[in-house]
Design brief:
heterodimer, A: mainly alpha, Sodium/glucose cotransporter, two-stranded antiparallel ribbon, 33 helices, 11 strands, B: mainly alpha, two-stranded antiparallel sheet
Chain lengths: 919, 65
């Protein structure tokens, strides 16, 4: 029954059904009742991810390394989770900018750079070709195997067949025709393909049903359930490694992780995935459903992969049947004709779905981002003078699709046989992953520049070519294995599969590690090396802050053109009829009667640019609009203005900060002054209360003795004499106290009279010693002087200075032990100051008291138990006197070993060298 | 910039959970020869964990705010 003609007929009937689905969807879309604007259809269309590679190849991979195929489907599960953030942002940007493809998206982000768009296109085309060839291989192989029914015979090797008799060649040709029929029937400003999406979603259902049918059949009809299947496999020693395959010979954890990362990127950055997930998205909210429905689809289509793999390994123990074909060959061995045919159709679904979407996505990129920019720039083509370019655009796309499929076919001839399906697919995944840094950084980092994106893409792509594409060619005898085994020019360090000696990894992991390092590294370096241009900055902000925008993005166009010029321009690409429709609708929207009344303002120019961008891509649209409208020169001047405004604000805030600092400092000073005032007030109160207390003590004595004398007239003369003596002594003390208080008050208030004159210190010191010699003698204290023979004169008040010296000397006498006491007075000069030391060997002063003794009314010793032996003002007055003449007064002392009271006085500059001669 | 919603935090947490579940060393715990109901535990674990992740994703993302 499974004759060749029958298989072909069924296949074409199936393709016909697809066209019917697509036609229906397009018709509904034209009526405004879209069937693809539905979260279920959206999720199913994402399942274009599961190609013939999944359909046949997963089993092949599972047969060699167990669960090793799963990361390819686990990664997308993770990506779809965060898709609500990342994909939604991309969808929003793509809709606002009428993005037509991945290349267009990246080019738009980096200042609508035609160079970037072209580079992305080239990488995508070269990277995806192996993947397309894989679909061709899958379809032609499965077709040939099915032709052999009921025998299971592996098809001949490529190369042993003539091209014109090769099934794969015809498969490629027919697929090109399908893609052309699906994707390039008309040009649309939105560049959406509702029919295609509907057909792809339909195909997703078919391939899932086919695969599940085989899975159930193998697990429950050929074998007695999963338990039986695995139990039998466990009985085979050669299959034991597949029971716990990780970390062993079959696959490392490193390659597991890298495969996951790779597939996380692939689900977004494979051109066909970008097409269905971003470009064809009709509603951001569909991403919510897709976040779990699409992973569920992946789970369902993978659940029977291992049972089928084990079933095949058990059924074909000799290894003469390629594991990639188990899905088809297992039903064939059981003579399940219908199931085998269903499998073939399922595989065909998977392959055509992928090829159609991929070819449309890539041809759009080739047309909009590679061919058109060149054609529009090269004047020789005189393209800008032609009236209607819409048919040219379609022709370019059709030619691109044919070229792509033929390219895929020749890659298949060249390298296809050398690899299992999974390996070929992964090479393409790794190429698509090179877009990840440019897009992801571009979405979230405003600083990523065109230079960085160019450098990153180039670096990543170069490493990919060297570490993956070259070895693939080398395996095909086309390039010789020498390069792989010994490296270029025999440099082992540069071997493509063990670059810089990085060995022990599988090829994909190895390539991913190096290419990502190169890609991200170059992107970063490129981005920080040079400043962004103004246009780049505008686009970067548009992308990164897309959620902050309301409505249409800002327009860089200056209103300097007419509506008719714009309409003509749009008409040349979309067809004049369509342009009239669009502009009339726009005019109605703006509330004017016709196109003639439309003003050529920036909004209209922006509108025209968007229409063009939806057809020929952002970079080309910008070029074209620039031919009729003038671009707003967001040049140096405006950027400088922006920077200037910013720096003015910064300067202003700096000034504010300074002012604030000053205010704070002033507040601080005021607070300190206030504290000082409070302190002075407190000191004054203290002073008054201390003075009154000090005055009361002698007064009390005087009054007490006077009362005794008054109340006791019969007191003996000797007694009376003693009391009167005490009264006189206390009165003298009172007088001295009052004098000193007045003295201090005068000095402190600045009212004291100073009779400043040039003084010879030696004379004063000697006189003071003479004056106090009686006291010393009476207390039994020895006094010595050590006076330098030549001492400069100082400027001071003689009486005041004498007062200081007498005070210090009498203090010294007071605190020395009678009999053993010894005081030395020294006078010396060091050129700047004249210094006087009064040293005693008395009781000394403890360190904590040394600062206190210069305060008013402070006396060392317990004032409660000992009778004060002075007024407590002497040293306070001395300090002020010495201070008044610019000198210092201090004490050095150790308790029990005596003290040295010293003061110095500055020598007047003019007199510094005029020494007073020894008198 | 709007403040991230509670759902956003849940999604990110779920993403991190997924990174943990499908990675070394958790995987290594199940990478043993044992079987559960006749099926190798690594296979059972991977599909069950995957299923739970999908169910949680459905609840977190589609569920009410």
């Amino acid at each position: 029954m499974l004759q060749g003609w029958f298989i072909v007929t069924v296949s074409f009937a199936y393709i016909g059904l697809l066209f019917a689905v697509a036609w229906f969807a397009d018709k509904r879309a034209a009526q405004g009742r879209s069937i693809i604007s539905n979260a279920w259809v959206y999720s199913l269309s994402l399942a274009v991810y599961a190609t013939a590679w999944t359909f046949y190849g997963s089993v092949g991979r599972a047969a060699t390394d167990g669960v090793g195929f799963l990361p390819i489907y686990l990664g997308p599960t993770l990506t779809m989770l965060v898709g609500w953030f990342v994909l939604r942002k991309m969808v929003r940007i793509a809709r606002l900018n009428r993005t037509t493809s991945l290349a267009d998206f990246v080019a738009s982000r980096y200042g609508k750079s035609a160079l970037i768009g072209g580079l992305v296109t080239v990488i995508a085309v070269i990277g995806i070709l192996p993947y397309i060839s894989l679909q061709l291989k899958a379809v032609s192989t499965s077709f040939q195997i099915l032709l052999g029914y009921p025998e299971v015979v592996m098809p001949l090797k490529v190369g042993s067949v003539v091209v014109m008799q090769d099934t794969a060649f015809y498969v490629a040709l027919f697929m090109a025709l399908f893609a052309i029929a699906f994707g390039t029937r008309q040009l649309d400003a939105a560049e959406r393909h509702e029919g295609m999406v509907a057909a792809v979603a339909f195909e997703s259902i078919v391939k899932l049903i086919a695969f599940l049918a085989v899975g159930v059949y193998v697990a429950y009809f050929m074998y007695d359930g999963l338990g039986d299947l695995f139990a039998r496999a466990a009985g085979r020693p050669d299959l034991e490694v597949l029971m716990a395959p990780l970390g062993g010979a079959a696959g490392s954890y490193a390659s597991w992780v890298w495969l996951t990362v790779l597939s996380m990127f692939a689900i977004v950055f494979l051109p066909r995935q970008f097409q269905v997930a971003v470009i064809e998205n009709t509603d951001e909210r569909h991403l919510k459903r897709a976040a779990w429905l699409f992973p569920l689809y992946m789970l369902a289509i993978n659940v029977f992969v291992l049972p089928i793999a084990f079933g095949g390994l058990l059924h074909f123990p000799l290894g003469n049947v390629d594991a990639d074909t188990f899905v088809l060959t297992l039903p064939m061995t059981q003579k399940a004709e219908g199931l085998a045919l269903l499998v073939f159709i399922g595989g065909l679904s998977a392959a055509t779905g992928m090829v159609i979407v991929e070819a449309i996505a890539l041809s759009t990129m080739i047309c909009n981002d590679l061919v058109m920019p060149i054609l529009l720039r090269v004047r020789a083509f005189r393209l800008s003078e032609q009236r209607d370019l819409s048919s040219l655009l379609l022709d370019i796309r059709r030619a691109a699709i044919i070229a792509l499929l033929m390219g895929g076919y020749f890659y298949y001839l060249l390298a296809g046989e050398a690899y299992a399906l999974v390996s070929i697919g992964l090479i393409s995944f790794a190429a698509a992953a090179q877009f990840a840094p440019a897009v992801i950084f571009g979405l979230y980092w405003r600083g990523g520049t065109r230079t960085g994106a160019l450098a990153g893409l180039l670096a990543g792509f170069s490493v990919w070519t060297y570490t993956l594409l070259l070895p693939a060619f080398a395996k095909s005898d086309w390039l010789g294995a020498d390069l792989i085994e010994h490296g270029p020019w025999g440099i082992e360090l540069l071997r493509p599969t063990q670059l810089f000696g990085l060995a022990g990894l599988d090829q994909i992991t190895h390539a991913m590690i190096w290419s990502m390092i190169a890609n991200v590294g170059a992107y970063m370096v490129g981005s920080v090396l040079r400043r962004q241009s103004a246009a780049e900055h505008v686009q970067a902000t548009l992308f990164v802050d897309v959620y902050q925008q309301t409505g249409e993005p800002g327009s860089p166009w200056r209103g300097a053109t007419s509506a008719s010029a714009l309409q003509t321009l749009v008409g040349r690409f979309l067809g004049p009829g369509r342009a009239v429709e669009l502009f009339t609708a726009y005019a109605r929207l703006r509330g004017v009667k016709g196109v003639d009344e439309l003003e050529g303002d920036r909004d209209l120019v922006r509108f025209a640019e968007l229409q063009l961008a939806g057809t020929i891509g952002a970079a080309s649209a910008r070029t074209m609009v620039a031919t009729v409208a003038q671009e707003e020169p967001l040049g140096l001047e405006e950027v400088m203005t922006i920077i200037d405004e910013a720096s003015q604000v910064i300067a202003y805030s700096h000034r504010l900060e300074e002012k604030q600092g000053e205010l704070e400092a002033a507040t601080q000073e005021l607070r300190a002054a206030n504290e000082r005032l409070k302190e002075l007030d407190r000191l004054k109160d203290d002073f008054i209360s201390t003075v009154t207390h000090e005055l009361r003590t002698p007064l009390t004595s005087i009054r007490a003795f006077s009362e005794i004398l008054h109340d006791n007239p019969d007191l003996g003369p000797a007694e009376r004499q003693r009391f009167l003596g005490l009264v006189i002594k206390e009165s003298e003390r009172l007088t001295r106290l009052i004098n000193q208080v007045l003295d201090l008050a005068k000095i402190e208030s600045g009212l004291a009279e100073w009779r400043t004159a040039e003084l010879d210190m030696r004379e004063i010191v000697l006189e003071a010693v003479n004056a106090t010699s009686a006291i010393f003698k009476s207390r039994g204290v020895r006094i010595d002087t050590r006076i330098e023979p030549m001492v400069p004169s100082v400027m001071a008040d003689r009486d005041r200075l004498m007062q200081v010296l007498l005070n210090l000397l009498s203090n010294a006498a007071k605190f020395c032990t009678p009999g053993t006491g010894r005081v030395e007075v020294r006078l010396a000069s060091d050129g700047d100051v004249v210094r006087v030391d009064v040293e005693d060997n008395g009781v000394g002063i403890s360190p904590e008291n040394q600062a206190l003794i210069f305060e008013k009314f402070r006396q060392v010793g317990d004032t409660l138990t000992e009778k004060p032996s002075g007024t407590g003002l002497g040293l306070a007055i001395c300090l002020r006197i010495v201070g008044h003449f610019g000198g210092r007064l201090w004490v050095e002392s150790e308790p029990g070993r005596g003290s040295v009271f010293s003061f110095d006085l500055p020598i007047p500059a003019s007199d510094a060298r005029r020494l007073v001669a020894n008198a | 910039m709007r403040k991230p919603s509670l759902r956003a935090y849940r999604i990110v947490s779920l993403f991190m959970l997924g990174c943990l579940l499908f990675n070394y060393p958790i995987l290594a715990l199940f990478n043993v020869g044992a079987t559960a109901a006749g099926v190798p535990v690594l296979y059972v674990y991977l599909f069950v964990a995957w299923g739970i992740m999908i169910a949680l994703a459905a609840v977190v993302i589609e569920g009410g705010s």
